[in-house]
Amino acid sequence: MIYKLVRVSTRSYRRVFVLLLLCLLLYFANWLYSYIIDFYVPTMQPQPVRKDMSNMPVISGQEHFIPSLIEPVVSEDNLFILVLINSAAGSESHFQKRMAIRKTWGKPIIGHKKWKIAFFLGKTNKRLTDEKRLMEAKQYGDIIIGDFPDTYRNITQKLMMAFKWTSKINYKYLLKTDDDVYVNIPLLITWINGRLHPNEPLYAGVLYRAKIIRDPSHRHFVRWSDLPQQSYPWYPKGALYVLSSDVVQEMLKIVSRVKMITVDDAYVGVLASYVGVRPVYLNGFIQWGFLPELVELFDRCTYSNIIGMADNMSPDDIYFVHQEVTSLQNSSKWMCIHVSHPILATVGLVIFLLLVLYTNRHKLI
């Protein structure tokens, strides 16, 4: 009788263990799949061949960059990172986001490598609103305002205007992001400095590839004549990507010969492929549309190991994340090893379950 009870109990533990092990295997398989897709699939693509664009015709309307109404005056020399932040001119909520960034992650830290932020906007064609934006630009000295309507159709022209402005600045790396994103600049600098080949051209972010949309009713519609290929090359999503200054300058040389499309981040990817630069994955950046719903659920260790979080973050979200990040700046990294090493945590859990099963089995016998 006792033997049967022990046998039944052992079978129950085995079933629980098998179920937990199956869950862990599914989790690990999903993690491994994402790792392969994010890291290895792009790197298995052939290195893009640099194209000679000198024989391509200059596109009408792109031979000159759209002039800016006002630009920041950068007095700092030899910036390590120049941060371009896409923002909108018309909405008061975007002003609040700009203020949140100025007071949190966009504010340089004494003792760190130098960086500077610059927001880029268009016009609203509403006199009072545009005057308010000009006053803001003069007050903070960190805004580029283009002389064109700030609409989605102009988003790529707006970005190229900001890229063109960077040619006036002495910087090493360019970070492009949006005003609803939180970025841990010191951690990003650590990632850049930790690269295996720090002197190679850099183009990094959360990699993505998509087919080119040919539906005229879609906002991402692109004519075949403007881009005669089936799919975009691999490119980092526009919420956050990093470029070395040499890559930006090479892109600017061919902008007048590559038709601008409304998908700005994909356009940067096309330019990169033409200048012979392949993007790499930037680990440590979270980009989820539902992220604001989860902001307060992450633990502090997670915040201290994340380079960036996007998107749709409100000013309150930005303030909250910054408070969590700064609260752990002087803490030991060993406190957060479980975040940096998910495989270690998974293996540890499996070993723990095996020990529990082994101990309970001997107690019953």
Topology readout:
Layout: H1 2-44, E1 68-70, E2 79-86, H2 92-103, E3 115-123, H3 127-140, E4 143-149, H4 155-166, E5 171-178, E6 182-183, H5 185-193, E7 203-208, E8 235-244, H6 245-254, H7 264-274, E9 280-281, E10 285-287, H8 300-304, E11 308-310, H9 315-327, H10 337-340, H11 342-364
Parallel strand pairs: 2-3, 2-5, 3-4, 7-9, 10-11
Antiparallel strand pairs: 1-4, 5-8, 6-11, 7-8
Helix pairs in contact: 1-11, 2-9
Keywords:
single chain, 365 residues, alpha/beta, three-stranded mixed beta sheet, 11 strands
| Helical coverage, percent range | 40-55%
Strand content is 15-25%
The description of the largest β-sheet is: 8 strands, mixed
Structural class by secondary-structure content = alpha/beta
Which regions contain 5 or more consecutive residues with pLDDT less than 50? Answer: 337-341
Rg from alpha-carbon coordinates: 25 Å
Strand order of the largest sheet: 1-4-3-2-5-8-7-9
- The overall strand count is 11
- Cα-to-Cα separation, first versus last residue: 12 Å
- Average pLDDT confidence is 83
Q: Spell the H/E element sequence.
A: HEEHEHEHEEHEEHHEEHEHHH
Number of DSSP helical runs: 11
**Shape descriptor:** globular
